[in-house]
């Protein structure tokens, strides 16, 4: 098994990611453009979930499933940005801690890869809202990368 | 802090849960009735996510976020079934392992409480599909129960 | 990548596991024989941590690290029992929920594989004590299996 | 339930933590002084596990249980440093991702609280070794704080 280190430099731009996502995962975009890839950098990606009534729960808070979907999307984006368009990379684990009740506003998700190996990528995602004193949620997640694409 | 044991017998029926969910969390039902509470029992609840094109991903598989939403709903149902209608019980942690690629069919979620304390409830959810040799996903999750409702 | 199913039948006996552990991981045995492999079965293994003063914490409870070490050992045993003596199989994730305060007594750990793939094995471990009404801890864990040993 | 914010400033010094640990948890210190609290700061603590043959595994790597024990200790230290000497604070969840094979050297653990609530504290711990290009392990953990001490 080759174990050469992967590059920490992204190999896809935001525009290329957007195009790939639209083509390969039209369902993930929900046809509503609420989730936006804002930036990619060395081992990082930043996404934004725009506020929408449909993600609200009673009490004016964002639903847990909406945050989990955002985290999964953010991990997928940061992995693809660094290994290239591999539709078959799959989440094997996602663990989320809900930390603060989010308000009715955008959520920003900062994904960072802690490991980018030949078979597994592991990262975390910190979700914040403007004006809140600390993250609303923290996620760690593992992706399995198909062999032959390493 | 009172630490008397909670009962392991459900205090809400499927019909009462359905009614509470429809009233308190209309958004969770998506207006589409895809997620059905099928049964509650001592420390357990069984839910079904009916197959729908909208949860599909390329390759004919069910999306990860759809499974995470199902697990969150199943945990919420089994917690409420045993503590009564407390809209403010909140997920603090959810950890999912994706085990097998699900096919384009219903997913059954069996939620079981491993601990039902005064402040925290911890359970797991096993998700299966008919005909598959092993679960498609396994979830553990923790709920925080507001004091005063204990 | 070959994806033939692995057998669900153990390929090592308790005695073979014991011998391999003693040879390959003398440190894990602590020289004290407190952790005992009691049985292996289809996708399962049962271990016992004998009670010892050295694992006690104030209040007469077993320490968290002692339980985490037991869970790691139990997962390793159930994985090896089914793939054979592969010293290089490594834990990639271990997540533990502490559910009840254990008393000063033995802990039994029942490990079960939920997935035994070519690259990853995923299982859970339920830890109990005689006389307690529910598990003291629940663990899920993922092992990475070196290629070429599949 | 009072929900006043806790202070983000430590209320115990390294010396006070050391003294409390020695008194309340002599077993955690192993009588060997391998685990050292090096610093506390706003919502943070830094610990060091000194290299010792007894934590080695075959291949010259540090054992998983030694890293889990370090993480648990680091979380306990950062929680106590901010809420004061409360021996009854207990870990409810600990999830570790093993990222890189550590070498035969010290491990530094940087614990950071992401939430310090009245009932729950949630933090993560990044473990590194000098000279390695990325963390050897990443942990998230939740502590339950007894009421009446909030």
Topology (elements, then pairings):
4 copies of one chain form a homotetramer.
Chain A: H1 14-24, H2 26-29, E1 35-41, E2 44-49, E3 56-57, E4 61-62, H3 64-83, E5 90-98, E6 107-116, E7 120-128, E8 137-144
Shape of chain A: globular
What pair of chains forms the biggest interface? A-B, 27 and 27 residues
The tally of strands of chain A reads: 8
What proportion strand of chain A? Answer: 35-45%
Structural class of chain A: alpha+beta
The low-pLDDT segments of chain A are none
**Strand order across the largest sheet of chain A:** 1-2-6-7-8-5
Gap between N and C termini of chain A? 10 Å
Please give the oligomerization state of what you see.
Answer: homotetramer
Count of alpha and pi helical runs of chain A: 3
Main sheet makeup of chain A: 6 strands, antiparallel
Q: Give the C-alpha Rg of chain A.
A: 15 Å
State the share of residues found in helices of chain A, binned by percent: 10-25%
Sketch the topology of chain A as an H/E string, one letter per element: HHEEEEHEEEE
User: How confident overall, as mean pLDDT of chain A?
Assistant: 88
